[in-house]
Amino acid sequence: MSNGINTLPLPGEAQNQKRELGQFLTPAPIADFMASFFSTPKSEWRILDAGAGAGALASALARKLCTATHPPDSIRITAYEIDPSMVPLLRRAYAQLQRDCQSVGTAFSATILNTDFIECATEAISRGLFSSDTDRFNAAILNPPYRKINSGSRARKLLRIAGIETSNLYTAFLALASQLLSKSGELVAITPRSFCNGPYFRPFRRLFLESMRLQRIHVFDSRSAAFSRDAVLQENVIIHAIRSKNVPRQLIVSSSSGTPGAPVRFRKCKYCEVVSPNDPNAFIHLVTDDNELSVRHQITGLSTSLPDLMLTVSTGRVVDFRASEFLRMRRGADTAPLLRPCHFNGPVIEWPRSNERKPCAISVVDRTRRLLVPRGYYVLVKRFSAKEEKRRIVACVYDPTRIQSESVGIENHLNYFHTNGKGIDRNVAKGLAAYLNSTFVDQYFRHFSGHTQVNATDLRSIPYPDRTTLESLGAKLSDQYITQLDLDELVRSEVF
Questions:
Q1: Is residue 11 over pLDDT 80?
Q2: With bands split at pLDDT 50, 70 and 90, how would you rate the model's confidence at 14?
Q3: pLDDT tens-place string over residues 422-479
Q4: What is the end-to-end Cα distance of the chain in Å, rounded?
Q5: What pLDDT is attached to residue 6?
Q6: How far apart are CA 360 and CA 415, in angstroms?
Q7: Based on the domain organization, do 341 and 389 belong to the same domain?
Q8: Which of 93, 276, 296, 440 sits most deeply, having the most CB atoms within 10 A of its CB?
Q9: Alpha-carbon gap, residue 75 to 45, rounded angstroms
Q10: What pTM, to 2 d.p., does this model score?
């Protein structure tokens, strides 16, 4: 049987078109790996492949079925692909499948729809065209497009009509596919990991997890290995879910490097450890080994929230392009410091830097006072961690005794902890920064975040030590740099 689907790069024009559409074609080894996730025997397979590309995914699944000890009676594929340049490739792929199925006595049919999946699916759902289970798909295999959906776009409006609120094409495809499945229908998809957390994906998580039960999640250790040919840097996962009302006791979290033939590590987890029934955010925690599980238990064993500490976390108020007329390259008599990620220097802020490349001060006038915070201790956290940084969460203390100013501006690429818009206790600030910079918090954060962005919502969701513990931890820290090993040991002894 042929297994050469999608192993060669597309011509440059076609490849550029796929990038514009947010679609990255699935390498054959990944397609075969995804096909192996399907577990429920069926005599008749009704397969949905939305965003089909060159047909790698449905072809991989059909080949797997045809080479089984007992091939199915029939395989029917419905492929949606908006890019007309892919249609000839799909026809060629399905012609080969027709021959493969015929050789083992399996009836085969394929329908190629060169149209917008969102438009067709939302119409079908809204009009109730799938009235019975036999009209629905019992399998879906997807590599959906990765692209944001503008809030005022036609696609966004159609999704809302169908009861789906989401801001990215890939979660829109997952939500629609799940609603087109029959009872016990299986879905396997490779997507960015970003849907596992974050406020923008919360409505999608709630909708998806209400009807779909996760069976397995596969995590790729490398950001680039799975789609190395396309230089995709998102952290990707493969999810296997079944449409059912019954919540399983366990699911499998597996992991590998993402390179072809790499060993796969498996871990059975309690379902409630991955998806907590009491979590209003419906975060999905991916724990791949015993050490990560131990860290998660340690962190979740802390019962203090930010409101308990009388603390709040916000995103910096100064957005460069909106306040450009008030930004200054140097400090003057009528300016306040403007803090950026470049001012992080170990445990404290260093301002100004000798080699400033961006404005480091902001004029203090009536129109900018609302953008500033008053003198005080603050804990700042980078919203985006750089490639060379080992931790996702990078925290630093703003010490008002080191920088003489009655107010300070915090740029939008930073989050900051405060008390009702004002500074916080010195030792609490130092202890909080140390806790956030610990390896424990970094590992916990990685359980549900697959990207380098750290949102204020993420920071609000983390459990914290109580105030007394933070004060004690902060009192033991100087302003001098200490190694990560020493910091972790101090946090371990004080917090855990």
A1: no
A2: very low
A3: 999 999 999 999 999 999 999 888 876 666 689 898 899 899 999 999 999 999 998 8
A4: 57
A5: 39
A6: 17
A7: yes
A8: 93
A9: 5
A10: 0.79
- Which residues form the domain of 75? 12-288
Tokens of 480: 């001098």
> How far is Cα 192 from Cα 185, in angstroms, rounded to an integer?
22
3-state helix, strand, coil in the chain (%, to 5): 35, 25, 40
DSSP class of residue 369 equals: G
Strands 137-142 and 181-192: parallel
Amino acid at 71: P
55, 93 contact by CB (below 8 A): yes
| Cross-strand partners of 76 | 46, 109
Give the count of alpha carbons within 13 A of 231, CB side only: 3
Which stretches of 346-496 are assigned E, i.e. beta strand?
348-349, 361-363, 372-374, 378-382, 395-398, 407-410, 414-418
φ, ψ dihedrals at 347, nearest 5° = -80, -10
Within a 10 A sphere around the Cβ of 132, how many other Cβ atoms?
7
Task: Say whether both 283 and 328 belong to one domain.
Answer: no
- Domain count of the fold of the chain: 2
Is 64 in the same domain as 210?
yes
How confident is residue 271, by pLDDT bands cut at 50, 70 and 90?
Answer: very high
pLDDT in tens, 207-227: 999 999 999 999 987 655 555
Q: Is the pLDDT of residue 10 over 60?
A: no
Q: Exposure string (b/e) for 330-341, b if CB count within 10 Å is 16 or more?
A: ebeeebbbbbbb
Could you tell me what percent of the chain has a pLDDT over 70?
90
As given in the structure block, the two tokens for residue 463 are: 């459990």
CATH number at residue 176: 3.40.50.150
CA dihedral 44, 45, 46, 52 (to 10 degrees): -160
